[in-house]
Amino acid sequence: MTLHITGDDAADRLLTDDPLALLIGMLLDQQVAMETAFAGPLKIAERAGTLDAAALATFDPDAFAELFTATPAVHRYPGSMAGRVQALCRTVDEEWGGDAAAIWKRDDPDGATVLKRLKALPGFGEQKARIFLALLGKQYGFTGAGWREAAGSYGEEGSFRSVADITSPESLTKVREYKREMKAQAKAAKSSSGGGGV
After folding, report:
1. What distance in Å separates the CA atoms of residue 193 and residue 188, rounded to the nearest whole number?
2. CB atoms inside a 10 Å sphere around CB 67
3. Is there a domain that residue 58 lies in?
4. Which of 25, 101, 169, 174 is most exposed, with the fewest beta carbons within 10 Å of its own?
5. Quick one: how far is CA 174 from the chain centroid?
6. At 172, which CATH number?
């Protein structure tokens, strides 16, 4: 199993080999391109010299934010996202013994349990948790009962809705098109519902 999300072999290898890297990539996946978000963990690992949850959680916050700001930046909102990554690492360290994979492996959980665990993480709302669960099920070997149902529409087979469906440059293009379409629909719905009297 090898993930192909960023188009960068080293970044994709880290996501494949290190569950915490994958979790951090998902956390960063907002208001930046997917490839930028998921390439973030490699930049963090190279600049911090580690991708250990405890080490990142206790990193000096100002110095950690600096790592995010260096060019190329890890995220367009380096300060707030650095804080969120540290909060996530703190939770992984304190509640999951520093092992991000324990979130979906400990006590052989079903899909609904993993979804609940993901939603309890800092920075993971309902949608992000469902997308990550779909990614675990579709590409990361998670086979917990009912994961597709728990992931909602993101768990559908043959869909191209999210990072969970990216396995090649072609699928990346399809996911981009889907996201663009959803944005356009949302924009159209907003303008039609908010229209004043003509």
Report:
1. 9
2. 20
3. yes
4. 169
5. 18
6. 1.10.340.30
Please give the structure tokens belonging to residue 197: 């009297």
Instruction: Please determine, for residue 195, whether its predicted confidence score (pLDDT) is greater than 60.
Output: no
How far apart are the C-alpha atoms of 82 and 44, rounded to whole Å?
10
Burial degree of 52 (CB within 10 A; 0-12, 13-18, 19+): middle
- Judge whether 44 lies within some domain: yes
CA distance 21 to 40: 9
Q: What pTM was computed for the model?
A: 0.93
Residue 198 belongs to a domain: no
Average the pLDDT over 36-64 and give the result: 97
Q: Is residue 134 part of a domain?
A: yes
How many domains, in total, are found in the chain? 1
What are the tens digits of pLDDT across the range 142-164?
999 999 999 999 999 999 999 99
Measured CA to CA, the distance from residue 155 to residue 35 in angstroms comes to: 21
Two tokens at 164?
């969970």
Residue 198 pLDDT level (bands cut at 50, 70, 90): very low
State how far the Cα of 64 lies from the Cα of 97, in Å rounded to an integer. Answer: 22
Q: Domain of residue 87: give its range.
A: 9-190
The candidate with the shortest Cα–Cα distance to 150, out of 129, 122, 168, is: 129
